[in-house]
Amino acid sequence: MRRTHLPGPAPVRRTNLTQLILDQLRDYVLSHGLLEEDRLPPERELAAQLDVSRPSLRNALDWLAQRGALRRVQGGGTFLQSTFLTVLAEAHVAHAAAPSNSSELAEARGYLEPLLVQLAAERASSEELAALAADAARAGQRLEDVEFWRLHDLAFHARLAKLSGNSILAEALGAALHQTARSDQSAPLDTRKCHEQHSEILEALTRRDAEAAAQLMREHLQGCHAVDDAAGLRVSA
Prior knowledge:
A two-stranded antiparallel ribbon has the order 1-2. It is built from ten helices and two strands; from the N terminus they run H-H-H-E-E-H-H-H-H-H-H-H. It has 237 residues and is mainly alpha-helical. Helix 5 (102-123) packs across helix 7 (146-163) and helix 6 packs antiparallel against helix 7 (146-163). The protein is globular and about 50 Å long. The protein folds into two domains: 17-91, Arc Repressor Mutant, subunit A (Orthogonal Bundle); 102-229, GntR ligand-binding domain-like (Four Helix Bundle (Hemerythrin (Met), subunit A)).
């Protein structure tokens, strides 16, 4: 008896490798707190860190450079541009994993960041705080450049997390920041208010006033990052 031909299995949908590498590059930039004109590691080193082939990495870097998100100098390296996050968001390259629910994201940041800044007040060195304050002061001279500020703001929070000295908590916040970077980069951003609040947080850290730094961080998240009372983080009067 002749066997009836059965349809074969559906073809496996291949994930676009370039898009995966773009996601990894975004995560790398955020986790290292990189800013505009910071240089990425050489291709060979970066490919090893991301565990991808150099040709695949080069394709992703070329894609970003063609859209103005990176500046590549012959023999001089590859430099981050302020449009990096915006280019990725507009291209919807993070489609493989949908962004977290906004209320969950707000809740995670609302609980983590006040704790991280308290730890930073106790553990960060004076030199580390001075370096962060210098970068914040330079960012204050570019308040009209919203694209630059989106990158600077995420880098500021990532660097504060590292200063906590707790890599597990810092990594947890990093995941939340990565989700923030996947959100709509066209949302309004009050750069002047954010800059003032960054400065206030840094002043409290310099005084080693952990409680004040944590309170200021709560106010900052409510004022600039839409972490509201739904996250259970009321700002005390």
